[in-house]
Task: structure prediction
Amino acid sequence: MASSTDHWGKRKQEAAERQSLKGRVHQILSHAQYNPDVLPDLEDYVQEQIVSETYDLNANLCLLRLYQFNPASVNIHAVARILVKGLMALPALDFQLYMSLIPERLHVEEPFATLLNLDALLETARFKEFWTEAARNRDILEVIPGFEAAMQRYAVHVLAMTYLRVPLPVLAEAINMNGPLLDKYIGQQERKGWEQLTTPEGKTVVKFPSSEYNTPSLRKITSDNLPLEQISKLLPVVESTSL
Amino acid sequence: MAYQRGRYEEDEGPAYGASASYGAVPDIVQSFVIYLYRHIREKNVYEIHQMYEGSFNKITERMFKQSPWPVVDAIAPFVENDHVFCLLYKELYFRHVFARLTPTLEQRMESWDNYCTLFQIILHGNVNMQLPNQWLWDMVDEFIYQFQSFCQYRAKMKARSEEELKQLRQYDQVWNVYGVLNYLQALIDKSQIYALLDNETARAAFTSADGYDYQGGSNVLKVLGYFSIVGLLRVHILLGDYHGGLKVLEPLDISRPGVFTKVSGCHITTMYYAGFAYLMIRRYVDAIKVFNAVLVYIARTQTYLAQSPQYDQITKKNEQLYALLVTALALSPQNKLVEETVSSQLREKHGDKLQRLQGIGYEVDAIYDELFSFACPKFITPSTPNWDEPPVNFNQDAYRLQLKIFLTDVRQQQRGQQIRSYLKLYTTISVAKLASFVGSDEATVRSHLLTYKHKTHIVDSVDGSIYRTSDLDFYIEGDMIHVAETKSNRRFGDFFVRNIVKFDDVVRDLEGVDIKEVLLYKKEAA
Result:
C-alpha cells in the first residue's frame, strides 16, 4: 500500500513539474524569447515533448534561435530530436524551418546528413526508399516514440489527397505494412470511411473517403461567401458612418 | 560577389577624427538646429517633417556630400544642450555617415550607444515629443540596417585589422543580437501596441490619426512600438526564421491599410519581407498577392516616390520584388493573381525567364539561383566568431545556407512542374502512359504525382489549415489520372469589400478638404 501511494505521489509530482515546465515555456515564448537564460528550460521541454508525445513548433524554433546566437551552447542531441520531431510533423514543412536555422557545416555531419536524406525522400514521396533507410537508422529514430505511426500518417495524408482509390500494393509500400498487419490497419480505418474493393479487372484497391482534394468537384465555390475577416474590414466604415 | 555589396561600401576609407570639424559651425547649420529644436519643442510635426525630409537633405547636398555633419558637441550650445535633442541629432549624424561615408568601428560603436540611450529614454516614458512617422520609421529601419551592416563587418574577419579584432572582441555587447531583439521587443511591449491593434475601435482611431496624438501627448513610443513589429519581422527573416517572422507580423494584418501603408519605405519593407517569408514556406499564392499589391502601389505612386531621398533604394527594392514575383510565379503559375500594370512590367523585365523556368536541369537551377541571389535579404550570422581561432570570413555563410535550402526545395518540385505541363493536356490519362511520356517507370511517376500534391498543399502545423497553391487539380482512381482544371470564379465579395473601404477613404479625405480654401486657391491660380 505504502509503495503504491508513493508511486502515485511521485506520478503526481512529475505531472505537476511537467505542468509547470509547460507553463514556464509559455511564459518564455510570450516574454523572454531572446534571453539565453531560458535555454535549459527549452531543452528540457524538447525531452518533455518526446516523452509525452506532444509537439511545440514555436518553442523548438525559439531554442534553435538561441543556439544560432551562441553556437558554443549547441546541444547536438537536442537538435537531432527536434529534427526527428520535425519529420513527424510532416506534411507541415517544420523540418525545413528548423534546417534554415542550423548552420550548414552541421548539415554534412551525422545524424543531420541522414535526417536530411530522410526528409528528401519523404518530401518527394519515395516511401519505399524511405522505409529502407529508416530501418538502417533505428538508433536515431526509434528513441522517439510515435515515429513510425507519424510517418504512416503522413504517407496516408499524401495518398488520400491524391487517390480516390489506391491500388493495395501502392498503399502497402507507402505505409510499410503487409499481410495481416495491413488488413488490420485497413480494418481500423473503416470507421473513417476506408473501403477495400476489388475492381472488375480483379485488382484490389482501397477507396478513401472523398474530399475536396481527391474529388475536385467537392470543392466549395467560395465566390459568394465572405469570410469573417473580410467583413470585419467593413466594421470601421459602418461605425464611422453611423456616427 | 554582387550579394556582398551593401548599400554602402564597407571597406576602409579615409579615417575621420571626431574633432575634425569641431569649431566653427556654419550659419546654415546653426539655424537648422535652432529651428528644428524649436519645432520639436512646439510639437510642430509639419515643420519638423519639412526640415527633416527637406532641409537636412538640401544642406547635405550643399555642404556635407563627402564629409560628416558637425559633431554634436559643436551644435549643443545652440540647443541649450538639450539631452534628447542631442541624441536625435546624433541619430541623424550617424545615419548620414552610414549613407555617405565609410563608418569606422568607433562610429559604429558610438551609434549603437546612441540608439541604446535614446531607446532607454523613450522606453522610460521620458519624452514628450511628437515626431513625424517618417522619422520614427527611419529610426527603426536604420537601427536594423546598422545591425545587419555590423554583422557583415564583423564576419569579414580577414578584412579587419588586429586592433579592430581586439576591439570587437572586447566590446562584444555592441550591436549584440540579444540587445537588438530585446530593444525591439521592449518597444512593442511597452507601447502596448498589440493590445491596441487587437481592439477594432482603438485600431481604427490609431489608423485614422496616422498614429499621431492630437490630445497633447506623445506619439513616439506608440509609433516606434508599431514600427518595431516590422523591425522584428525583418530581423527574424535576416536570421532565416520565416515562421517566427510571420508570427510577429500577424497582428499588423497587412491585408488592409494601416499606419504602415502611410510611410512608403515601411510599406515596401513590410511587404517585401512578408512576401519573401511566404515564398520560403511555399505559400506561393500569398507571396504572389503580397508582391502584386506592393508593386501596384509602387507603380501608382511612382511620381511621388521619385521625390523621396530614398528613391534609389526604392528602385532597387522594386527590381528585387519583380525578381521574387517571377520566382513565385514559376513555382505556382497563377498569372490571374497579377494585375495588368504589374504583369506588363513583368513581361518586359523577365518574360524570357518565366518560360525557361518551366524546364528541368542545371540551366533552370542557375536561373533560380540568380533570381534568389539578386532579390534575397542580406542574411546575417548573428553570433560572435570564435576569437581563438585564426580569422576567417563567414559573411556569406547565412546567405549560402538559405540559398541551398531554397534550391533543394525547388529541385524537388521540378518533376511535378514537368508532369503538370502534361496533365494540362488531358482530362484522363493512365499512369503508364504518363510514365512513357516522361521517360520513367510507373512507381517513379506515382511518386512525382504525390510530390506535386504534397508541395502544392501546404499544411500549417499549428492550426492544421491547408493552403492550396496550384491551379490544376487531379486525382487518381487506381491506374487512371483524372484532371480538372480549376475555373476560378471572380470573387465579387472581396472586390466590393475592397472598394467600399477605398470609397470610405476617399469620402473621408474629401470631408477634410476646406472648400473655401480650394476656391481661394483656384482664384489665385486664375
